[in-house]
Every structure is written in C-alpha cells, then in structure tokens.
Design a protein that fits this description.
Blueprint (H helix, E strand, L loop, with lengths): L2 H24 L7 H17 L23 E3 L8 E3 L2 H15 L9 E7 L2 E8 L2 E7 L5 E3 L2 H4 L15 E9 L2 H14 L7 H9 L4 H5 L4 E10 L7 H10 L9 E3 L2 H14 L7 E8 L2 H7 L9 E5 L4 E13 L5 E12 L2 E7 L3 H5 L19 E5 L7 E6 L23 E2 L8 E2 L6 H11 L12 H9 L6 H4 L2 H5 L14 H13 L2 E3 H7 L7 H11 L2 H10 L1 H24 L5 H12 L3 H11 L5 H13 L1 H11 L3 E3 L14 E5 L7 H10 L3 E3 L8 E4 L5 H9 L2 E3 L1 H8 L3
Parallel strand pairs: 2-11, 19-20, 21-22, 21-23, 23-24
Antiparallel strand pairs: 1-6, 3-9, 3-10, 4-5, 4-7, 7-8, 10-11, 12-13, 12-15, 13-14, 15-16, 17-18
Helix pairs in contact: 1-2, 17-18, 20-21, 20-22, 20-23
C-alpha cells in the first residue's frame, strides 16, 4: 500500500469512527456493533503506526468519547476521564503484564497484584463531593469536558447526596446502568404508550441519564457502580482494592465480583468465571477490567495520551455470550415446516438483547448438520443447558456451543414432535429433507395464517390496508380462512349485524378504503398470483419464470396434472438414490446411481405424455426438479386445489407481456450491482425482463452481462475473474436503447 492509498483509507476510517463516537456517546443510538467499531479503530491505529505522516493531523488518535451535547451545561474535568486500552485474546493479557514488568524493571517472578472487576456496559459518570455534599455530576464527554447532569444524578438511589468521613474534595467515578428487569419493564411501558423502544440496557441508561427533564430520569430506574476516582484533596487508599472498600463504606454500591489476582493465570480464570455468570448477573457487562493494585505503582506507570498504562479492558467476544436455555418451542411456518426456537435467559449479544435463537431442525438439536456430519463435537441441546449464543451483524442468533459441565441433573434429550403442535396432524420428514413438516395443509391454523400473510405481502397481492396484523385478527375471528375469503369480505362484512366499520380500530372510511383496495386486486398479474399462493420453493423469480412459460392458469394447471405421474416417479427415484448412497457407503463401494434411478422410473410405468409434460415443466429456466415437484404437489392436493379454484373465481388473471425476441439482450442473463443513477433497481430489472433478458441476483458462469454502478464490489471482481462482460450504466442504456 502506498501513501496515497493509505491516506484515502485513513480519512475514510476517521470519518466512520467520528460518526460512531457521536452516535454512541452523544446520541445514545449506536449504528456500529462493538466488534465492528473495534475492528475499524484497530485498522485506523495500525495505519497511523505504519505511516507516521498520517498521524500528524489525525482527529481520532487521542480521542475519547464525543463532545458534550448542546442541551447541557459543560463541565471541565479537574482530572481527565480516560478510556481503557483493550485486550481481545489471552495473549494480549500476557503481553500487557509482561510490558508492565519491563517498564517497571521487575523480574518475571516478582510479585505483581491486580484487581479484576466486571466491565459494566453503561455510561461513565463523575460525582464531585465537597465537604461531603454532592455538588456536581458530569458525563465523560470527550474526557476533558463533559455534560452537567447533576439534577438527573440526584434522582438515582445508588448515588448518596451526602457522605461522611470523606475528604474535603472527592470525585467518585463509576458507571450508570440499567438492570435487565428494569430495561424490559421500561420497554414494555413504552410499547404500550408509543414511546421510544431501546435496543439494549446501555442505550436505555444513557438516554435516561441525559434527559433535559430530571423528572423523566427519576421515572426510570437507574443504578450506579463506583470503581474509580478523579480529583481528591487527600490520598484515599494505598491500593485499588482498599479504595473500592472505602467507596463501599461511604455508601456507594461496588461490584461484588471484584477480586485481587496475583498472576496472569488467576486473571484469566476470573475472566472465565465472570463470563460464565454473565447471563445471571441481571445487568450487562462486556468484559473484565484489570488494574495494577498498588497505587504507588500506578503513579510510576502513569498514562499514555488517552489511556492509563496500569489498566486494560479484556473484552468478551462481541458476537458471543453464554446464557441458559429455558425452553424449546416449535413454530409452524407457511410451508408446514416445524422450526425449533430456543427460549433463552435474555443476554446482550452484539449490542442487542437476545432472548430467542434458532435451532434450525431436529438434527441440529441432536448435534448433526444437514448432511449428518457431527457439529459442536456431537453435543446435543437440552432444556436447562448453558449455551453459547452467536450473533454477527443482522444474522439470526444461533447456538454455537453447549457447556456439558453445567448441564443440570436429569436434563433429558429433547424429543422432537411427530405431530403438528398446532393442528395435531402427522409431522412427516421425507427422505432427503432436513425439516419435518405438518401434513395438515390449510386445516393447520399456523400454515393458514402464514400463507395469508404471504398472500397479502408486497411482492404478492400487496393489498393496501391489509397487513400481517389485520390478517391475524381476521383469521382469529373466523372472517378469513383462505385467500378467497378476502375477496368476500365486503359481501360478508360490509353490511348487516357484523360490519367491518364497527370493529375496534376501523371506521366507515377505513373499511371502505380496504374494500376498494381489495377490489383493485381482482385483476392480478399471473406472476403475482403464482407467488402469492405460497407454494414451497416457488419464489418471486421462479413465479415470473413459470408465468412467462405457461402464460395462463389453465395451461399451468393442465401441465401440473399431466406431469403428476412423472413427478411421483421422480420422487421415488430420489428416494431410491438416497437409499443406494447409504447402502454403498456402508458397504464401502461406489454407488450405482444411474442404474437405480432408471430402475425406479421404469417401475413407475410413466406414460410418454406424462414424461413430456414433466420435461416441459423442468425445462422452465431456473425451475429444476425441486420446484417442479412442489408445483405438482400443490395442484395434486385436493384441499389446496379447491382453495385455488375458489380464489380464481374472484380474479381476472393478466398474462405477462411477451418478451421481445429481437432485442440485443434477449435470452441473456444480466446482473445489476452498485448504485444506479439514472433509474431505480426495480425499473432496470423490469426493462431488462421486458427485453427478454433474465435478471439474476448473483454472478455465476451463466451470467452474460454485469451492469456495474458506483460502489460495485465483490460481484464486479467475480465477474472479471470469470471473464464476464462488464459495463457501466451508460453503456447498458446505449445497448438497450435510451428512452
């Protein structure tokens, strides 16, 4: 990397870090996870070290926090409020201790004690007492100047208004936080009253302390742990642990998990012990802070520009946390899939309070992946277990590990249900399917509701005023059981004793608007109809491909009926293939796949017409046997077919426009990436499809053209590696003809 490239990246990182500091410290609304922030800061500092000329006018090298907000009076700290250096791995702690010994000229075996205490995830606060009376409270701000929040701090029960037997001047420093229980109660109240919902207790605590109206702060249950000090008129102790004890004697809350450790090994052991207790503490912590215990040694070690040499924060992995599994619930989805969900003792992971995690399927619970391979060293998941939760970015939390040492006595293996918990129908797991599915179809209320939600979704019928909440209510009241019922709402509930306009939350105007919106969708594009039916594997793209190929409901239904025998033969061949693979693996020989499939299909005696219909079905670009089987199953199911027919009686199905055959992109696969400046992504896709092109979401060997706007990333790199034609937006418009 040359200096120019380094400078460009350095300035970009600087801007990102500055924005993140303001979001976290001043706005109490962080937009980056702790892990992502730490990654950016490490890269920023590494560039500054590699290119010293960049550090000369850098704004975030010696920065702490963010400037005080304009709504508060400003307080200059008599003693600067520092931040802490971070350790992320055990070897970082070893390096920290070794570095202290070198700085102090101490032998490797010389006694050196530390305190180790939980790092509270809250808001730093400095309390100034003069002659035993609280006279000022200030946030950290940028370390030199903070916000005057004295009146708000006076409302916190853990903060004494007066202390006795204290120095004439004493600044007690610590962390304001909110317990898990109080956080949950606050969000519940706000949910009922339409107030702000906080993502985690830290944001709730910071937002509550930094209210311009102290009465709002008083109404929110904040807590305070004391652990440090600023200006004092006299020495308060000889060691860190004695200072903590003195704070306790003065009436402050101090953390009971603070310990004195005499080696790296005992520091790491206490770190592990605290991490194991994390979910049971009742408040958020994000690591353990180590401080040299001897205050005389702290004075000798001194400070760097923004951090003390004698302390470090050993952070927990930001995406990981241990907590207890309180239960396993089974949810039933739109396609009948039984999905197990872990109910957890709430714990903050990656800046979000997590109380649920996915368990995927019954194999995952048993310690196996979708191919039968061992995961988590084969450890199964049981109710009562202590589990490690993983969450990165917006990924749904999942169980990464199980601590067998903490498994409670009598915890039995989880027995996955073989009947649907909602309707009692058999829950069947077909050969080759990792998921067990309810066979109840539309008689299953869970499937019915989810199918209805899908039916009214944006990419399907998109009926204005009829969303998931309304669907749930109408289904619960027996008004809407299947899609056809939506188009009978006005007939059944537009007049008479039970009228929509008389329901809570509705009126004559809103009811009329809904009926009008429903009527507007009686004419519907064929592709939207297919997608809206919620057939397994048939997504938005597949629905468009099917619509373009068959062009009418009648043609699709005829093809599905005619191809049914071949579809069943194909499924039998799949099952025979799976059994042959399993036998071959156990016998240590090569599987005879083609022979087995041919024999299975031959035994099915499929007619030439049925085979031709099946071949036509799977020839639809992008469909494949799995999607074709799902279509066949849906049309062959008597209850679903009857529901389809009842729905079609209310609709006019609009066939898709015939794609252009003589355009320069007809039959080609196009991918759009980056920012399009002359049209929206939806418009670009629609125009490409109208010209006979297929628009894909990812680059593959089948891609013909990549249209790359500003900000194009990995897709452009992959396209270049594959030798795919790449063009900018202007070149694309020149190719297809500008409008």
């Amino acid at each position: 990397m040359d200096v120019a490239d380094a400078r460009a990246e350095f300035r970009q990182l600087e801007s990102q870090i500055e924005t993140a500091d303001l979001d976290y410290h001043q706005k109490d609304a962080p937009t980056l996870s702790d892990a992502e922030y730490d990654r950016l800061k490490r890269r920023y500092l590494a560039l500054a070290e590699a290119f010293p000329e960049l550090a000369a006018d850098a704004s975030r090298i010696g920065s702490v926090g963010a400037p005080a907000a304009s709504g508060f009076g400003k307080v200059s700290h008599a003693v600067r409020m520092m931040s802490l250096g971070n350790a992320f791995e055990d070897h970082d702690v070893e390096d920290f201790v070794a570095g202290l010994r070198r700085y102090l000229g101490m032998a490797a075996d010389a006694a050196l004690a530390f305190t180790a205490e939980p790092k509270i995830d809250g808001l730093s606060l400095s309390l100034r007492y003069e002659n035993g009376r609280l006279v000022q409270a200030a946030t950290r701000g940028d370390g030199a100047v903070g916000e005057n929040v004295t009146e708000n701090a006076r409302t916190i029960e853990d903060i004494p208004q007066e202390i006795s037997a204290a120095p004439e001047i004493l600044e007690v420093r610590g962390e304001v936080y909110m317990s898990h229980a109080d956080f949950e109660a606050l969000n519940d109240r706000h949910l009922q009253t339409g107030g702000k919902i906080f993502s985690n207790p830290r944001n709730a605590a910071a937002g509550s302390l930094r209210q311009l109206d102290a009465e709002i702060t008083r109404a929110r249950p904040l807590r305070f742990f004391a652990y440090s000090w600023g200006e004092t008129s006299e020495k308060i102790a000889e060691t860190q642990i004695e200072a903590i004890s003195r704070f306790q004697s003065l009436g402050f809350q101090t953390n009971p998990l603070t310990r004195v450790c005499d080696s790296v090994q005992t520091l790491l052991a206490h770190y592990q012990s605290i991490e194991e207790q994390r979910a049971e503490l009742g408040y958020d912590i994000d690591g353990v802070v180590y401080k040299v215990n001897d205050l005389a040694l702290q004075d000798r070690l001194g400070f760097r520009s923004t951090t003390p040499r004698w302390a470090i924060a050993h952070k927990f992995p930001a995406e990981l946390a241990w907590t207890r599994l309180d239960g396993i619930d089974i949810q039933v989805g739109r396609t009948g899939a039984l999905s197990p969900v872990a109910r957890l003792q709430p714990v903050t992971v990656g800046g979000v309070v997590v109380s649920n995690a996915t368990l995927h399927n019954e194999d995952y619970i048993a310690g196996l992946d979708s191919k039968g391979a061992v995961i988590r060293d084969g450890k199964d998941v049981r109710v009562g277990d202590w589990v490690q939760i993983y969450r990165a970015g917006d990924v749904i939390p999942k169980v990464a590990d199980v601590d067998l040492k903490r498994r409670p006595d009598g915890a039995g293996r989880f027995v996955f249900p073989t009947r649907c918990p909602r309707c009692g129908s058999p829950a069947v797991r077909e050969e080759g399917d990792a998921v067990r599915r309810c066979s109840g179809g539309l008689i299953c209320p869970a499937q019915a509701v989810e199918k209805l939600k899908h039916f009214v979704s944006r990419a399907a019928f998109d009926i204005e005023g009829l969303g998931a909440k309304q669907v749930e209510q109408f289904h619960s009241d027996g008004w809407v059981r299947e899609p056809a019922d939506i188009f009978e709402l006005q007939t059944n509930y537009g007049s008479g004793l039970q009228q929509l306009k008389n329901r809570e939350g509705w009126g004559e105007k809103s009811a009329s608007a809904l009926f009008s919106a429903i009527n507007d969708k009686r004419s519907i594009a064929f592709a939207r109809l297919i997608f809206g039916l919620g057939i397994r594997h048939v997504g938005e793209v597949a629905a468009k491909d099917v619509a373009l190929h068959f062009r009418s409901w009648e043609a699709l239904a005829t093809a599905a009926d005619l191809a049914r025998p071949a579809a069943l033969a194909h499924r039998a061949a799949d099952e025979a293939e799976l059994q042959e693979r399993q036998r071959a693996q156990s016998e240590g020989r090569r599987a005879r796949i083609s022979e087995v499939r041919k024999a299975a299909i031959s035994e099915s005696s499929v007619s030439s017409d049925a085979q031709a219909a099946w071949d036509d079905l799977i020839s639809v670009d992008g469909l494949g046997p799995s999607v074709a089987l799902s279509l066949s199953d849906a049309f062959a199911n008597a209850e679903e077919r009857a529901a389809f027919d009842r729905l079609l009686a209310h609709l006019e199905v609009i066939p898709p426009d015939a794609p252009a055959q003589d355009s320069p992109v007809a039959g080609q696969t196009v991918v759009f990436t980056g920012t399009l400046e002359k049209m929206t992504r939806a418009e670009a896709k629609a125009r490409a499809e109208a010209l006979g092109a297929k628009v894909a979401g990812s680059v593959s060997k089948k891609t013909d053209i990549l249209v790359a706007g500003p900000g194009a990333g990995s897709k452009a790199t992959k396209a270049a590696d594959l030798g795919i034609r790449i063009m900018d937006e202007d070149s694309w418009l020149d190719l297809i003809g500008r409008v």
